[in-house]
Predict the 3D structure of the following.
Amino acid sequence: MSQLELLALDLETTGLDPRTDHVLSLGWVPVVRGQVLLAEAHEHRVRPPEGVEVGSSATLHRLTDDALADAASLTEVLPLLLDALRGRVLLAHHAALELDFVGAATTAAYDARPPLTVVDTLAVEHRLRADVNGEVHGSLRLDAARRAHGLSGYAAHHALTDALAAAELLLAQVAELERRLGREVLLRDLRPRRSG
């Protein structure tokens, strides 16, 4: 962890399906050698090709058509994200969503998915909270996971805030893992365990 560079990423979208839904904002913040680099944090709003109001997502993230009227397109923002990810591990809470949307966008723009190494704080928390029988106690949502580590609350459904919340959560998870393991945490300690 003392040598690792990650990029905490969060997306706000119109829904959960990258085939039919659209990215409305991206927020990211680098985590370099155990430090959150706030000076390098970014948030970009994205103008969707279709209106936001078609779903109920606007009630969650408060991103409406008029708020996004002057925003950049995803094709304009995507190169900025890919540049920020270069040489870094993608960090997200429930990373499958970010992976699906980033993968769909890069496939549409470049006809290829980027090869990404991923750390998912949801998966790490699942492992930390599992008891000896493999059962998980308590919610694994980002806010609940943060509370379990003594981290303060935050306003959810804002891309940059959620990216920062995931970055802070990872640092707390790493501290707990280091106590349990009695050594420095390695990237392999944060990756999902393979079954079989």
Remarks:
- The CA atoms of residues 16 and 39 lie 30 Å apart.
- The helical segments are 57-61, 65-68, 74-85, 95-110, 121-129, 142-148, 159-181, 187-190.
